[in-house]
Structures are given as structure tokens and as C-alpha cells.
């Protein structure tokens, strides 16, 4: 389901997950999708800890219960009894003693900004109490996982990346917990926060994150979208440099931000995208491109039209629901996925009934068999058409303004030169951070 919604999903560092009992702790920026992504990508079975109100929602409640999630009763929610969390801690301890893996989002809430919120102490308490109840012999691992999304709410335009960090050192705090439990809990929570910050692009706000993504694209040697792990690592480096420079060289950084924003806007308005760096293609290249893409579209169009006929109704209904609901940026993808889970099967049932009425059993069979392949062609052809329109506009733009490529190249070179000059001012220790280890 997530592989259909997002263009790309990737997990790095899976080898760092230890065997035996483990608590996986991740940042929380994309609603239900955060948990689903880790359940989908991590090979071990994960028991998710979810806030208690989710269990009372009609559709979401069914969903989280089906995942086997455990309810967390938070103090700030009306009607919640924090004392009931003792049962949660008892259940979590029992599962850890059984060698299972728990998934927790220690921020306690999902929010759309690319910044880590203050962590709750639940993950640390669970680990330390489970160890205490087992005589400090469990060896529970606490593993940070950083989640990074690009356009998290955009169907087929976004991507998701999960980076598993090193298990945190906890042996000293397990011993300390016997004498000073609150101090041990606070220290372990602090270690976890530092480890998570080393794994995510902590830009502070979405505007800055957009500029960081644009800066990575301008830097010609940066990895492309095909290598999500390397690209996310570049974004983290740029974010750390941005945070350092914002305190020590705010005027130069502000000028650079303005230049990057103007360049990105010019490229967007021109419809150039990646063509801005490539420059104007030659006539032969353009003709070969037109022939190849035109032939592919012509061959796929009949099945794509059939796919639109089969899937157009639930697609438009899902869009309508999202437009009326106006969900926040951190839950937009969750709303779209949940709405589609209801609307698509309902629409298919209705269309199947129509096919049966018109063609009997044979008509229904043809409709059922056509659902999957026509959906694939509709999606593939629509994405190809969007790309051809975008790249075609770029080619025409280059034809209309023959100096455009040179102008953009000069602006790009000037921005990169300023980036290089500012980068010299950033100590190497700021740029390089451990991958979620205890020294983070």
C-alpha cells in the first residue's frame, strides 16, 4: 500500500537491529504512515504503541487494533487516565521479556515540521523497568530510527527513507536505575534525543527544508533521488551547516537563502526541473525523445483509458474527501490512505455490480481481471504524460529564450561558489555526526 502511494521507500542500517528484546524509537512527522512504514520495511514483527484516542475512532481504531497496537494514555487528553499506563508498562515488560520488539514514537505526537520535539520518558522507563523486573539480565536494545520524507502527502510524488542508528549504550543506566531511577530515565531520554537528531534532517521549518533540498540539487556533486540514503545524508550535513551559520554568519546565510529561493522559483516557473542543470538539448536528442515517448504513450493509452474508467470514480472521491477535510500536513497521507481503503473497494463493488448487470458473470470476470493491469497502465501513463508535458515545456522555454541556459548556469555557479565559501567556515566536526550512536 505504501509502495503504491510513494514513489520510493528505503531502509538503511537494518543490520544494526539487535536480536532479542528491543525498543525501536523513531521521530514522528507523518501520522499513521510513520508506523506503517517501519512495519513494512523492518523484517521483525513490531508491536506499535499508539495514543489511546486512536482506538476509539471508527476506521482508525479498527486499523490500529488489527496491527496489534498497545494504547498509550497521555496526560493532556481529556478522559484519559494516566494510571492506566501501568498496565501498558506491565504488558510492554512482558513482551520484552518474551524477546519481542516494540515500536514507540517518544515525541508523543505527530507534527509536520522537520524538527524533533521534546521527548517523553516512556521509552526509557519501559526499558529500565523491564530490566529491573528481570534482574538486569534482559539486555533490551534501544534503537533510534530517523524518518525522512519528501513531499509526504503527495501521491506518487513523495518518498520515504528510514535510517536505523546504533543501539544506545544502556548498561550504566540500568545499574544507576536501582539507586536513582529518575536520573537514569532522564539521562537515557537525553541520549535518545541526541541519537535521533543525528539521524534526521532537522531544519526547523518546512521552508528551510525546501531550501535545503534545493541547495542539495544545486550542488552538482550531490547524490540524485535514486540514492535516498546518500541524498538524506547530504541533507543532514546541509542542515547542520545551516544551523551553525545561522548563529555565526546570519547576514551571509540570509543572502544565500534568498539566492537559492530566487533560483528555485525561476526554475519552477520556467517548468525546467532537472533540465535547468542539463541545458538545452540538441535537435536530434529532442526528436529521439519525442519519438520514444510518443510511441510509449500511444501503446499504453488504450489500457490507461480503461484504468481511468475503472478507477477514476474512487480517485476523485478521495480527492473530494481530502479537500473537504483539509487535514494537516502531518496527517495528509494518513487521511488519503484511509479514505482510499474505504472508497476504492466501495467503488469497485458498485462498478462490479454494473458490469454484472450489463454482461453477466463474464462481464464481472472481465472487470475483476482488468482492475490491476489497467490501474498500472493508468498510473504509468499519467506519470509519463506529466513528465513529458514538463520536459516539453522546458524544451520550448529554451527555444524561446536562447540565453536562458547560460543565465541559469551563471546563477547556479554563483550560488555554488557562495556555498563553498561558507562551507569553509563550518568545522568538520559540525558536518559529521555519528549515526545514532551513544556519543551522538
Please provide a written account of the structure:
By secondary structure, the chain is α/β, with parallel strands linked by helices. The chain has two domains: 2-197, Glycerol-3-phosphate (1)-acyltransferase (3-Layer(aba) Sandwich), CATH 3.40.1130; 281-401, no CATH class. It has helices at 2-5, 31-41, 58-66, 85-97, 122-133, 171-179, 181-197, 206-218, 228-248, 250-270, 275-278, 283-325, 332-400, 404-423, 428-431, and strands spanning 8-12, 22-26, 46-51, 70-72, 101-104, 141-150, 159-164. Helix 3 (58-66) links the parallel strand 3 and strand 4 (70-72). Helix 6 (171-179) packs antiparallel against helix 7, helix 10 (250-270) runs antiparallel to helix 14 (404-423) and helix 12 runs antiparallel to helix 13.
What is shown here, in short?
The chain is α/β, with parallel strands linked by helices and 440 residues long. The protein is built from 15 helices and seven strands.
What keyword list fits this structure?
alpha/beta, 7 strands, Glycerol-3-phosphate (1)-acyltransferase, 440 residues, flat, single chain, 15 helices, seven-stranded mixed beta sheet, 61% helix
Topology of this protein?
Elements: H1 2-5, E1 8-12, E2 22-26, H2 31-41, E3 46-51, H3 58-66, E4 70-72, H4 85-97, E5 101-104, H5 122-133, E6 141-150, E7 159-164, H6 171-179, H7 181-197, H8 206-218, H9 228-248, H10 250-270, H11 275-278, H12 283-325, H13 332-400, H14 404-423, H15 428-431
Parallel strand pairs: 1-7, 2-5, 2-6, 3-4, 3-5
Antiparallel strand pairs: 6-7
Helix pairs in contact: 4-5, 5-7, 6-7, 8-9, 8-10, 9-10, 10-14, 12-13
